[in-house]
C-alpha cells in the first residue's frame, strides 16, 4: 500500500498552463494535473530540460513561482515558493547548467 506523504489535500485538475523561465524567454506548454495549497503536478507537452526554479502561468491568469521537487518522464512535481524564497527572475546560463550537470553525473 502506498503512503500519501502530502501535508494538504490535492484537487484534481486538467487545466492548460505554461512553464516560464529564462527571463520569460523560454515558455513551454504543460497541463496542471492536480494542485494543493503547497504544490502541484505538471505534465509536460514535450520533454524539456527545466531549471530547479521557474514560474507557472495558470490559465486563470495566476502566476506561480515554483521549485521542482521530482520528475518522472513528462510528470513534474513542484512546490510553491514563499515570497521569502523567491529571488529576482534572472536568465539561466544553460552552458553552465549543463556543465554542472555533467560534473555531477561523472
Structure description:
This protein is mainly beta and 106 residues long. The chain has a single domain (11-105), classed as predicted glycosyltransferase like domains (Thrombin, subunit H), CATH 2.40.10.220. It has one helix spanning 94-105, and strands at 11-21, 26-35, 39-44, 53-58, 63-72, 75-80. The longest helix is centred in the last third of the chain and has 12 residues, at 94-105.
Q: In short, what is this structure?
A:
By secondary structure, the chain is mostly beta strands. It has one helix spanning 94-105, and strands at residues 11-21, 26-35, 39-44, 53-58, 63-72, 75-80. It has one domain: Thrombin, subunit H, CATH 2.40.10.220.
Give me the secondary-structure topology.
Blueprint (H helix, E strand, L loop, with lengths): L10 E11 L4 E10 L3 E6 L8 E6 L4 E10 L2 E6 L13 H12 L1
Antiparallel strand pairs: 1-2, 1-4, 2-3, 3-6, 4-5, 5-6
Amino acid at each position: 500500500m502506498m503512503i500519501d506523504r502530502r501535508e494538504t489535500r490535492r484537487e484534481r485538475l486538467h487545466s492548460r498552463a505554461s512553464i516560464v523561465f529564462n527571463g520569460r524567454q523560454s515558455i513551454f506548454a504543460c497541463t496542471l494535473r492536480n494542485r494543493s495549497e503547497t504544490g502541484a503536478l505538471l505534465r509536460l507537452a514535450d520533454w524539456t530540460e527545466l531549471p530547479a526554479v521557474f514560474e507557472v502561468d495558470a490559465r486563470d491568469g495566476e502566476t506561480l513561482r515554483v521549485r521542482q521537487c521530482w520528475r518522472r518522464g513528462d510528470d513534474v512535481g513542484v512546490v510553491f515558493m514563499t515570497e521569502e524564497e523567491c529571488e529576482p527572475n534572472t536568465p539561466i546560463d544553460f552552458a553552465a547548467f549543463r556543465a554542472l550537470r555533467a560534473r555531477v553525473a561523472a
